[in-house]
Design brief:
- The complex is a heterodimer.
- Chain A has 15 helices and 15 strands.
- By secondary structure, chain A is an alpha/beta fold.
- In chain A, the strands form 4 sheets. In chain A, strands 6, 7, 8, 9, 10, 13, 14 and 15 form an 8-stranded mixed sheet that branches. A 3-stranded parallel sheet of chain A has the order 3-4-5. A two-stranded parallel ribbon of chain A has the order 1-2.
- In chain A, helix 12 packs across helix 13.
- The relative contact order of chain A is 0.15.
- In chain B, about 45% of the residues are buried.
- In chain B, helix 3 runs antiparallel to helix 10.
- The model of chain B has no long low-confidence stretch (mean pLDDT about 90).
- Classes of the chains: A alpha/beta, B mainly alpha.
Chain lengths: ~450, ~350
């Protein structure tokens, strides 16, 4: 049996050995399981382009963090969970001594890595996706749903709608149109809690993956005559929804999407149908942000930019990639302050840094990242750190922020996380850390 | 020359009917067994978690499909769905039955999948070929929809994702990649051996008779209904156990969407490439489909560097898909009966070497 298996194994082992000799000192290694091909490739190109450009920017502009250069290796996941695991395992071997936060930008992959990364003591960051109850750091010491989570976002959107409606949503009807997967379902508990608190009717309408056919759903929306549609789509589903809304005559300015439905890639293909549509975000688009302008000057000026298509600089997802890198580098800086400046930080140390982030408005301004991030302050019991979003509107040519920072209802939402984390700890036999003893 | 059988006389019926009648095969098999149990001494964690465990699990799923498609001749596109049934059933048995041993959960998961398989096998009594494939396609969509629709099945998890419990047998926690590998290896070996014997039994012969011509089979006294349904049941049992292992020993957490039609196709390609109607083929096919992309992933950048080509990660991925497709076509043209048949031809040539005729 399987005799032909052996030569393949031997050959692969040789190439494996050849590749794994690239460990250099005074470098901070970032394992990057990225995706640039496959159905969501366009999104990945922008996000990881921004992420890598910022790492290079730190190297070129500031000679790294206290002299430690940022190094990275990418591995193509194609947004596929099995491939993501393979990539993680491959990159893990090089991340034993120094490991930057891992961004997979896929809920499926991040779910599969939550346990593994904790076992391997590698920090897993899920900025705006992934396992949201990891906000409770006592159960999830190595997982960080940074900035904000789906539930807090949903709550912030409801708050925005309430303010828009003179402070009350009583008796209103809100349709939640969502991608029928972990991603779309996460927000339901939060919306249900908000619905009973604010006394509005919530109608749940799922869309099966990939969501390029939504005739039935929009027919139902027309029958229901909702006051608002809260929309949780991804990829091709977004433009389809906007076109379908136009077809049934539902006003686009009563449709509010999540942050994965509010990028240029989502609205431009919908053309006219997208005008007036709103979406949540934690980073603005455009090149007005100082650090984005500077990246274009320094990194692309030197011809070392990661993007092949330079037009993507300043798009929502590119800027989001930069914001993810800003937070990651800041965590390393924080960790170096505690564990030794000028040294590469290992996974545990970086996790400590992520848990002790304190990015005030002034600090964000000093980094040139104003409007890329809200204020972030993390702790053992709060791995989210912010919970704030802005609402932006598509004017037909660009995204325009229409509000300041809006914070979700933390008192309502965070207990949901703790309950869910507690259940997880029970199922998995994890003894939670005592956060009052953590410094 | 190596494969010459001169001097190997079969003096008993048992010797004549054994699984591996040629002595060299038996020696090779033993070497392979040693290699497999010796692997833990050398292989890294990467090898276990990213290559060997998924390889064994997919080989098991391919085995399940091969029993149905290769031996009983019923084309199925619902393999991933039956795996999903197994994964979710094992999770629920562990969750809801106090103190149930994990292996019993796996068996129950297999039995649940077998039950569902029989249900979706019923149309096979009336329809054949492509029409049956479409009927099993319904299973694929229905089961995934069902697992998404009823939150009870995922223990009301807000995201629909289930997180597999720890694998503990007799107080030993299988939490390292090595231990998981050995557990999967043990289960897959036992089930592969069982399958090998099963297809040689009267049941297996009845399946093959139905596959070759069901009218003729029924004329010689094979009852079509139990035979076909048994094939569906056994096949789904294998897929169900593979699904449970996929959730518990490989990914650790699964969601219904993960068991997509893509995965069903992938398993179908495994048996087409490996060899329809061959136990060995399942392993060869799984190895080909799973390992080749990874191998290309590693070797392409090295090759590119050698020639000074500017390959980005994305380019490597595109080339990998291209080469993968080309190789599949190459193999199908050169040997439509799969890698197992290639191996058989090689063996026959070796037996006659150096004087082939």
């Amino acid at each position: 049996m399987m005799k032909t298996f052996k030569p393949a194994v031997a050959a692969a082992a040789v190439s494996l050995a050849m590749l794994s000799q690239a460990a250099v000192s005074a470098e901070q290694f970032f394992p990057i399981p990225s995706f640039r091909v496959g159905p969501y490739g366009a999104n990945g190109q922008s996000f990881y382009g921004g992420f890598i450009d910022y790492l290079n920017y730190v190297n070129m502009k500031e000679k790294g963090v206290n002299g430690v250069q940022m190094a990275y290796e990418e591995c193509e996941t194609e947004y596929n969970t099995a491939k993501g695991i393979e990539c993680y395992e491959r990159l893990k071997g090089k991340a034993a001594d120094s490991a930057g936060p891992i961004h997979v930008m896929s809920t499926g992959i991040s779910y599969a890595l939550v346990d593994k990364s904790a076992q391997d003591k590698l920090p897993l960051t899920m900025m705006g996706y992934g396992r949201t109850d990891a906000v409770d750091g006592s159960v999830f010491p190595y997982a960080f749903p940074l900035v904000t989570t789906y539930q807090m976002q949903a709550s912030a959107i409801i708050k925005f709608l309430r303010d828009k409606n003179a402070g009350s949503l009583e008796g209103k009807k809100i349709v939640y149109l969502y991608h029928d997967s972990a991603y779309g379902k996460e927000a339901i508990v939060a919306l249900q809690a908000e619905a009973s608190l604010n006394k509005f009717n919530l109608v749940l309408i799922p869309v099966a993956h990939p969501g390029n056919e939504q005739g039935a759903q929009w027919l139902k929306i027309r029958q229901e005559k909702p006051d608002f549609v809260v929309f949780w789509g991804w990829g091709v589903m977004n433009q389809t929804a906007l076109k379908a809304a136009q077809k049934v005559g539902f006003p686009r300015d009563k449709m509010i999407g999540s942050w994965w439905t509010g990028s240029e890639e989502d609205v431009i293909p919908a053309g006219d149908a997208a005008k007036g549509y709103m979406a949540a975000t934690w980073n603005v688009s455009g090149k007005k942000v100082p650090v984005i302008a500077d990246i274009e000057k320094v990194v692309y000026g030197a011809g070392k930019g990661n993007l092949q298509d330079k037009d993507k600089i300043g798009t929502i997802l590119y800027n989001r990639g930069v914001s993810a890198a800003v937070v990651s580098v800041e965590a390393i800086r924080k960790a170096q302050e505690k564990f030794g400046k000028g040294k590469p930080m290992n996974g545990t140390q970086v996790a400590w840094g992520l848990e002790h982030l304190d990015m005030t408005e002034a600090r964000i301004k000093a980094l040139g990242a104003t409007d890329l991030l809200p204020e972030i302050k993390t702790s053992c019991s709060n791995h989210e750190g912010s919970g704030k979003v802005k609402i932006q509107q598509w004017d037909g040519a660009k995204w325009v922020p229409v509000t300041g920072w809006i914070e979700g209802n933390k008192a309502l939402i965070h207990p949901l996380f703790q309950a869910s984390a507690k259940q997880y700890a029970k199922e998995k036999g994890i003894t939670p850390r005592d956060c009052s003893k953590e410094k | 020359m190596l494969y010459r059988e001169a001097g190997q006389f079969k003096t008993t019926y048992a010797a004549d009917q054994q699984l591996f009648p040629i002595r060299q095969d038996r020696i090779g098999l033993m070497l392979l067994a040693v290699a497999f149990f010796g692997v833990p001494l050398f292989a890294s964690e990467y090898w276990f978690s990213a290559i060997l465990i998924p390889f064994l699990i997919f080989a098991l799923a391919a085995l399940g499909l091969n029993i149905l498609t290769g031996y009983a001749g019923q084309l199925s596109l619902g393999t991933a769905a039956f795996m999903a049934v197994g994964a979710y059933a094992a999770y629920n048995f562990q969750l809801r039955v106090e103190g149930i041993p994990i292996l019993v959960s796996f068996i129950c998961a297999g039995l649940t999948a077998a039950g569902v398989g029989i249900l979706f096998g019923l149309p096979s009594l009336r329809i054949k070929g492509f029409y049956l494939a479409v009927a099993t396609l319904a299973a694929q969509f229905f089961i995934v929809w069902c697992l998404t629709k009823f939150p009870w099945l995922s223990n009301h998890s807000s995201s629909g994702v289930i997180s597999a419990q720890d694998v503990v047998i007799l107080g030993f926690n299988f939490d390292t990649p090595v231990s998981k590998y050995l557990l999967v290896l043990a289960i897959v070996s036992v089930m592969a051996l069982a399958a090998k014997n099963l297809v040689r039994s009267s049941t297996g012969r009845a399946w093959m008779a139905v596959r070759d011509m069901d009218v003729a089979a029924s004329v010689i006294g094979i009852k079509l209904m139990p035979t076909k349904l048994l094939a569906f049941a056994v096949s789904s049992f294998y897929c169900g156990v593979a699904g449970a292992l996929y959730a518990f020993c490989y990914l650790g957490s699964v969601e219904p969407d993960g068991f997509s039609l893509d995965m069903s196709f992938k398993i179908l390609f495994m048996i087409i490439i490996g060899g329809v109607g061959s136990i060995l083929g399942c392993f060869l096919g799984a190895a080909f489909i799973l390992l080749l992309p990874i191998f290309l992933d590693y070797s392409l950048p090295a090759v590119a560097e050698l020639f000074g080509l500017p390959f980005s990660n994305a380019t490597v991925s595109h080339i990998q898909i291209l080469m993968f497709g080309a190789l599949i076509m190459f193999f199908l043209i050169v040997e439509p009966h799969g890698l197992a048949r290639l191996w058989q031809i090689a063996k026959e040539k070796l037996r006659l070497w150096p004087f082939p005729h």
